[in-house]
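ESCALATION

Customer reports they have been waiting on this structure for their group meeting. Please prioritize. Original submission:
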Amino acid sequence: MRTFRTQLTFHWHNHRKRLLWFGAIVLFLDFWLIAGYGIYEPDYAIALVMNNNFAAISIFILLTAYVTAASSFPLLMGLGWTRKQYYWSSLIYFAAFSIAVSLAQTLLIAALRQLLPLITFDPGIAVISYGMLWYSQTAVFFLLAMVFFLTSTLMYRFGLFWGVGLIVVYILSL
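Update from on-call: job pushed to the front of the queue and completed.
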């Protein structure tokens, strides 16, 4: 259990600064979008923030999964941990990461829905249920992280050409 906690701590410390910088940049861009674009289209301010954040978080998750498979895998194998321990800790880390990021996104949307009427924007009906929004985003982010983590692992194991080739063969066989 101690090695499992150590691996989760390693994953957290490996991505902590990137996550904090990413969160700060996303918040800045959200307020910039509302201030700049929301004046011209006040009815679509929440939908604009939701869609842009979803795309940015998806790209960040892709990059995080690639960095996890490409750089931390050889490092943790060199420290003596098994592949099974590494995959389980990565699975738990990406699950917790997806839950946290989707919860932060849902809380941001809830806060914007309460704050936008104060500056005479109509929040509209972009969000009907926060629970469903949180659950669906958690599922999408987790599946995206796992699929790209699998892809990155195949690329690490077989090289870029053969990793992409195996993925193409798998997709064509569906």
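Sent to customer with the following note: The CA atoms of residues 74 and 101 lie 26 Å apart.
Escalation resolved.
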